[in-house]
Amino acid sequence: MGKKIFCRWSLLSFLILILTWAPGLELSAQEVHLDVPYVPTPYEVIEEMLRFAELKKGDILYDLGCGDGRIVIEAAKRAGIMAVGIDIDPQRIKESRENARRAGVENLVEFRRQDIFEADFSEATVVTMYLLPNVNLRLRPTILSSLKPGTRIISHSFDMDNWKPEKMTYVAADLYAHTVYLWIVPANISGIWDWKMNLNKKNTRCQMEVEQEFQYLSGQLQLDDLTIPIPETKIYGDKIEFEVQTPGQKSVNLKFTGQVQGEWITGTVAITTGQKNSNQSWKALRRPGTARSIER
Ligand SMILES: C[S@@+](CC[C@H](N)C(=O)[O-])C[C@H]1O[C@@H](n2cnc3c(N)ncnc32)[C@H](O)[C@@H]1O
Prior knowledge:
Helix content: 25-40%
Strand order of the largest sheet: 11-10-9-8-15-14-13-12
CATH architecture of the largest domain: 3-Layer(aba) Sandwich
Order of helices and strands: HHHEHEHEEHEEEEEEEEEEE
Number of strands: 15
CATH superfamily of the largest domain: Vaccinia Virus protein VP39
Shape: elongated
Radius of gyration: 23 Å
Number of helices: 6
Bound molecules: S-adenosylmethionine
CATH topology of the largest domain: Rossmann fold
Number of domains: 2
Structural class: alpha+beta
């Protein structure tokens, strides 16, 4: 924890120093309003960020505030994927385009001179950022509501306040321990869901009421008149999994797995009654107007 605070404050003071002292950057900051000064990510840190990203064919990476384009160019070079850099500073966009040409990846990358708060990056499957805590927080609602579930968000140095990361690590570079964070955008499955299932040879009315904070879920399942709590669980992108047990001597164990697509969840329930196992499919529909924001 001490290391993390030291690391964050060292970087923050470094960024502030740069803004205060570097005459070139002062000029640049006067010409264009920068929410974050330009400080490039060391290549050792990019290595770890891209390892967290697990890039695969078909991915589209966006670097928000792309600086000289190094993350975008490395992603395109290493994984052959499409990558887009957004920066408000025209000088950075010019450098990025030159660097992409030198690296021979112009056909895979695109650099846009835009404000990250106005840009549309909803097609991204991976988003990288080296911004500041307050800037991450301003982007958080857009990240959670506009990006596809499963999109990987990787941040150098700064976290997302109470949105807990999936992974975190430190990388030594330039005399600092740099922090790298990974979040997976969760589908929002808050609300009330209804479906029917055949349980104990009986057509059973099922209802699930879900409360969600970021990727964490809890709630209750109703099987006709029986109410069972759903233990706290996690949603991973658009995939859910939870297990409940009916009370009493003839207890039934139900293990639900499912995939969320908008207002529908489809999946399989593994049913265990004593020594007997069976599988059944389930398809639940969310009641209109019951979804809530998952940010706290
Ligand atoms: C700390 S640098 C990170 C550069 C690059 N992503 C990297 O990791 O090497 C932050 C970048 O954000 C850009 N920036 C600052 N405010 C911005 C805004 N509102 N919209 C787009 N870019 C912005 C700056 O010009 C700068 O290049």
